[in-house]
Amino acid sequence: MSLSVRIAAATGQEVAQLSPMHGGDLSEVTRADLADGSRLVAKTGPLVEAEARMLLTMGAAGAPVPRVLRAGPGLVLLEWLPETGATPEGWYALGAGLARLHASTGPAYGWQEDYAFGSVEIPNAETGNWPDFWAERRLLPSAPALPAGPRRRLETLAARLGSLLPATPPPALLHGDLWAGNALFAGADAYLIDPACYRGDGEVDLAMLHLFGSPPPAFLDGYGPLAPGWQERRPLYQLWPALVHLRLFGSGYLGLVTRLLDRCGA
To answer: Does the annotation count 25 as an active-site position?
Structure first.
């Protein structure tokens, strides 16, 4: 069944035009212009229903996300938002929205279901100890992908996390894949898109956002002050997305991984 037919069946409206949108690392993203003049975003792929559940949870927490219009196996329809580019006001709004997301806490670290970035599985089984979660669910699954030297360094670092990370930070609701491309700016507003949610230390999202660049000061003005010691924890949290990039895109990211291991004192 074609995408147009599936959208029409879900909305009761004929599709006038389909236009591919940027993105699509984990799913195909398409703008659909409907016969009544309205627009929406269609996402297709094996994990889009799980993403819809994440967006609904984030929205219920007060975070700025696109509304989920329909969700079913392999197809999710989302509110279409006009993208205008980042402004200082938008960055402030993003920081404030992320702070609202992180203010929503749960009873444990992890998520009710596993997820994946392409071929890289993301185990999310819940635990009550944060360093154990970060070691066992995030860092160590990538150890087999490393050469012997970096692998030993990673394993040694994982064994030391109990002395490097807080044992029980608030289990904040995390976006889970927060880089600049997963923030949508619309004038003075900003929205979080393409999540990979779980609960953990809120600094994880901030570390990811700073891995390949730095947001302007307005972002932290909106987010608020950080806990003491964040500078030492940041490379520990940046190490996981660096390992994911290595596994997805190849050895060109090995240098980034080893530099982060250096910064972690491994």
So the answer is: no
